[in-house]
Amino acid sequence: MFRPKLPAMPQPTGMVTPPVVVEPTTINPGTSTPPATVPTPTRPTVQLTPGTALALVGGGTAVVLVVGAVLVSMLLAVAITGASVAVCALVIRSLVNADAKRR
């Protein structure tokens, strides 16, 4: 009654493949392959002229200003939403209190 019932291990069904015998291969010492040389890519060097440096600074400034404006507008939207929820809560509270005083 208190002994666990172990499941019977069923025999595998379907096609059973026999194990594959791997034969060792011979290694011939002394035969070596020369190391492969990796060709280095020839890229032109980047030269910063005063005009390109000014363009990079202007582009970076524009990105910072746009990201800042987006973040400020999101903060303003959250503040306005919070203020409107607070006003709604005050109006509902005053309506509930006024209704309770009438009874």
From TrEMBL:
What is the recorded name of this protein? SpdD-like protein
Regions crossing the membrane:
53-72, 78-96
KW Membrane (keyword) present: yes
Q: What is the source species?
A: Streptomyces edwardsiae
What keywords tag this UniProt record? Answer: Membrane, Transmembrane, Transmembrane helix
Recorded superkingdom: Bacteria
Lineage runs:
Bacteria, Bacillati, Actinomycetota, Actinomycetes, Kitasatosporales
